[in-house]
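Reminder: ligand-aware prediction takes two inputs, not one.
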Amino acid sequence: MSFKSNVVIVTGASSGIGAATAVQFAKEGASLVIVGRNEARLKDIAAKCAAVGSAPLVVRADVSNDDDARRIISETIKKFGKLDVLINNAGVLEYGTILNGKILKSYDKNISINLRAVIHMTMLAAPYLVKTKGNIVNVSSVLGQFHIMPMVNAYATSKAGLDHFTRGSAKELAASGVRVNAVSPGPVETNMLMTFESSEDTQEVNTPLGRVSQPAEVADLILFMASDKAKAITGSVFLADNGVILG
Ligand SMILES: NC(=O)c1ccc[n+]([C@@H]2O[C@H](COP(=O)([O-])OP(=O)(O)OC[C@H]3O[C@@H](n4cnc5c(N)ncnc54)[C@H](OP(=O)(O)O)[C@@H]3O)[C@@H](O)[C@H]2O)c1
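Here is what comes back for the chain with NAP:
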C-alpha cells in the first residue's frame, strides 16, 4: 500500500488515531500534512513521522475556524501543489443530556468540530481531489449507529450526521472519480477514551470481544480505505468496533 506520490492531510494528528495514521502514512512514503491545535504534541508526531519517512508539513489550526480550514488547504497546495487524500479525523466528545440542561452546549461543540468542520474541509478539498481522482476518509464512531448512554447523545448525533454526509458526498463526487468513506471505531485506547472512562458522568466500556482497539488498528483500516485496494469502495461506513453494535 504505497502512498509514495500522494499528498495526504490528516486532521487531529497530534494524538490518538490521527497520530497513528500520520505515522503509518509516513512509513508508506506519503507527503504528509499534519493538523491540530497543540503545538508541542504536533512537533512530537512530526518527529515520529520524520523518523520513518519524510518530515511532514505541520499546520497548527482549529478545523472549526473557517479561516484556519482555508489555511490548511492553501498551505498544502502552496507546499505540495496537489492533494490526493483527506483524512477528516479531528474530533471531540462533549457531554450533556436533555435533563441536565447541557445538551445544547454539547450539541453545538460536537457538531461544529465533528460535522460542520468536516463539511467545510470537504468543500475546500474537493476541487483538488477531483484533479487527482483522490479520496476522503472520515473518522466516525459506532455511536453514530448505536446509543449507549444519554451523556453522549449529541456526540452520537454528530457522528450519525457524519455517516450520512459521507454517503451524500460519495454520491455527489463519484461522477468526478472521488471516493468518500468513513471508518467507525468502537472504543480505542486514546486520550478521548481515557477521559471518557475516568469521568463520573459515564460508565465503564465493555465490548463483546472483551477488548478495546489500539490506534494503529484503526490507522491500518484508514490506510486501506485510502488506498487503491479499496477502489470499488465508496459511501461505505466501515465498523471496527470489537462488536459493540451487537449490544
Ligand atoms: N477513542 C475512541 O474510543 C474513539 C471511538 C470512536 C471514534 N473516535 C473518533 O476518532 C477521532 C480521533 O479521536 P481519538 O480517539 O484519537 O482522540 P484524541 O486522542 O483526543 O484525538 C483527538 C484529535 O483531534 C484533534 N482536535 C480536536 N478538536 C480539534 C479542532 N477543533 N481542530 C483541530 N484538531 C482538533 C486533537 O488535537 P488538538 O488537541 O491538538 O487540537 C487530537 O489530535 C475522533 O473523531 C473521535 O470522535 C474515537
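DSSP finds seven helices and seven strands in the chain. The beta strands are 7-11, 31-36, 57-60, 85-88, 135-139, 179-185, 237-240. We will return to this case in the review session.
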